[in-house]
Amino acid sequence: MDAAPIALLVVDVQRAFDLWEAEGQRRNNPDAVARIVDLLAAFRRSQRPILHIRHASQRPSSYFSPDAAGYPVKDEAREIAGEPVIVKRVNSAFIGTDLEAQLRAANIRSLVICGATTNHCVETTTRMAGNLGFDAWLVRDATWTFDRIGPDGERHTAEEIHAMTLSNLHREFARVVRTSEVIERLGTEP
């Protein structure tokens, strides 16, 4: 990671998830957004590319609909001038967008991926990054998910889902790392 061109992908850090929590949905990794803020600061200090991904649902009733209160990015993870925002309509940030073309044009070979949710858009984007030949680094403490009910009616905790997703992706599609490891490799400790 030290010498290779690398970029940070910040996936779907949108207010919709705050609304989910306000309705009582339980999540894991309560400090994930703080770790995303740490990653943003480290990439900005090192002057490395950051790409922000936003989900724009095509369902008018979705919190992620462009007209909904949940669509805007959380203030802590807001882009600054020069940091592109890529809007997607499906789980993968590579489908229906120019993300891959932007990365290839900039000669980016490695991606540090963070955001929400671990088992949906983060996982799908990470899988595709690996399949497309990028060296993907999934940041375990800068991602989160929510409890879910399975098809058999069994409740699965956010912690279980998060751990299983990381296990599925590790070594096959990505390296699973912590924020501190990424910052150390970037050499941008404050």
Outline the secondary-structure elements.
Blueprint lengths: L5 E6 L4 H7 L9 H14 L4 E6 L29 E4 L10 H7 L4 E7 L1 H14 L3 E10 L3 E2 L5 E2 L1 H12 L5 E3 L1 H8 L4
Parallel strand pairs: 1-2, 1-4, 2-3, 4-5, 5-8
Antiparallel strand pairs: 6-7
Helix pairs in contact: 2-6, 4-5
Number of domains: 1
- The N- to C-terminal Cα distance equals 19 Å
**Record field, number of beta strands:** 8
- Structural class by SSE content: alpha/beta
Counting DSSP H or I runs of 4 or more residues, the number of helices is 6
Helix content: 25-40%
Sum up the overall morphology in one term. Answer: globular
Order of helices and strands: EHHEEHEHEEEHEH
Q: In CATH's first tier, which class applies?
A: Alpha Beta
Q: For the report, how would you describe the main beta sheet?
A: 6 strands, parallel
Order of adjacent strands in the largest pleated sheet: 3-2-1-4-5-8
Uncertain runs are none
User: Architecture, according to CATH?
Assistant: 3-Layer(aba) Sandwich
**Rg, nearest Å:** 16 Å
The CATH topology annotation reads as Rossmann fold
State which percent range the strand residues make up.
15-25%
What's the pLDDT, averaged over the residues?
Answer: 95
Q: Multimeric state of these chains? A: single chain
CATH superfamily: Isochorismatase-like
Provide an overview of this structure.
- GO terms for molecular function: hydrolase activity.
- The chain has 190 residues and is an alpha/beta fold.
- It has one domain (6-186): 3-Layer(aba) Sandwich (Rossmann fold).
- The protein has helices spanning 16-22, 32-45, 99-105, 118-131, 158-169, 179-186; strands spanning 6-11, 50-55, 85-88, 110-116, 135-144, 148-149, 155-156, 175-177.
- The chain has a six-stranded parallel beta sheet, with helices on both faces. A two-stranded antiparallel sheet has the order 6-7.
- The longest helix has 14 residues, at 32-45.
